[in-house]
């Protein structure tokens, strides 16, 4: 009767403890063994040091909030919020009376310079033939120099006013991007008159977004001597992103006593927030086992290892941390076959023996 009660209790515990640990491949058997699944202890690469919250932000030095370099009427935007741009990408089309006037003056001066250059060519022939005096040639060359100087001044003015603006079709001008990046905001409506002081468009440098994680003074000690990486899970995302360490703030915030750590990677969305796991190199000699493999047996963290006997044996381990959802332990070797599901039932069975 005692044996029947014991068997019933074990089977009941097994039914209540169907944990969802991965790698569940059991060999068909009977009784208690039929309820067990095994996995091999694996070599880790990283250990989870801290789990915190983080937010993606952009340094102010990597944002361009600008208007057209010259006063102009905005005809139409050629980009939208979220557009990726490169240096020279057309942002908008403009109409600028000031640029139009300067361009007209430039064209007229180009015509004048060209005409005077031709006149000098003819004058030189006349001087050589004795039909004209050298003084008339000197006056013509002086007149050409003056026209060239005027053209150069106008072109300089166009260059200053023309920063990031190029000629478009007909009387319109194209306002172009000064950087590679992402358009994050557009504030100026078509039809309005805007200038360099206007905050029309915000462009964030393509590689500028960084994940910021504020780490308390006590938690920073856990990272001492290591350069952490990060696993970033934005709110609402289904998969985590691996990010590289970029930099840390010079010191601790005087009020919060936290230090900001920044991480970089592809696909960061400005303003996104979520959970972050800071990872450091795994302790030497540690192996990875499923979280539910580690149970306490007589007050000692243990895992059950298949050593070829009738039943897996409890082996004392040191629980030294975690990597994702798995545990990092020492005391067993890579490749050891450990119980992935049913460890709690085995522990309970041992308690009745």
UniProtKB/TrEMBL annotation:
Q: Its domain of life?
A: Bacteria
The alphabetized UniProt keywords are: Transport
Coiled coil region boundaries:
none
Q: Which PROSITE patterns match?
A: PROKAR_LIPOPROTEIN
Which biological process annotations from GO are given for this protein? copper ion export; plasma membrane copper ion transport
Q: What Gene Ontology cellular component terms go with this record? A: cell envelope
Listed name of the protein: Uncharacterized protein
Q: What organism is listed for this UniProt entry?
A: Microvenator marinus
């Amino acid at each position: 009767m005692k044996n029947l009660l014991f068997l019933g209790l074990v089977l009941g515990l097994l039914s209540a403890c169907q944990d969802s640990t991965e790698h569940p491949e059991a060999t068909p058997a009977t009784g208690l063994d039929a309820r067990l699944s095994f996995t091999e202890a694996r070599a880790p690469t990283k250990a989870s040091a801290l789990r915190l919250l983080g937010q993606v932000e952009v340094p102010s030095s990597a944002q361009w909030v600008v208007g057209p370099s010259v006063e102009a009427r905005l005809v139409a935007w050629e980009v939208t919020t979220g557009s990726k741009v490169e240096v020279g990408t057309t942002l908008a089309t403009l109409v600028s009376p000031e640029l139009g006037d300067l361009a007209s003056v430039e064209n007229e001066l180009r015509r004048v310079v060209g005409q005077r250059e031709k006149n000098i060519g003819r004058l030189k022939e006349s001087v050589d033939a004795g039909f004209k005096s050298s003084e008339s040639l000197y006056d013509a060359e002086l007149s050409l120099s003056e026209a060239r100087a005027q053209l150069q001044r106008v072109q300089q003015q166009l260059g200053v006013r023309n920063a990031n603006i190029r000629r478009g079709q007909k009387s319109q001008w194209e306002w172009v991007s000064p950087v590679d990046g992402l358009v994050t905001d557009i504030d100026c409506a078509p039809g309005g008159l805007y200038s360099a002081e206007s905050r029309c468009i915000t462009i964030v440098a393509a590689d500028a977004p960084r994940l910021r994680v504020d780490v308390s003074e006590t938690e920073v000690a856990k990272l001492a001597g290591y350069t952490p990486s990060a696993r970033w899970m934005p709110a609402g995302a289904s998969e985590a992103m691996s990010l590289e360490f970029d930099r840390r703030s010079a010191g601790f915030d005087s009020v919060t006593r936290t230090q900001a750590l920044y991480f970089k990677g592809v696909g960061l969305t400005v303003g996104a927030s979520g959970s972050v796991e800071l990872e450091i190199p795994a302790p030497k000699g540690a192996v990875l086992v499923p979280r539910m493999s580690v149970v306490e047996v007589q007050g000692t963290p243990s895992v059950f290892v298949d050593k070829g006997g009738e039943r897996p044996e409890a082996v004392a381990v040191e629980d030294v941390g975690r990597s994702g959802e798995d545990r990092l332990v020492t005391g067993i070797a890579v490749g050891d076959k450990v119980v992935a599901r049913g460890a709690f039932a085995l522990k309970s069975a041992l308690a009745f023996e």
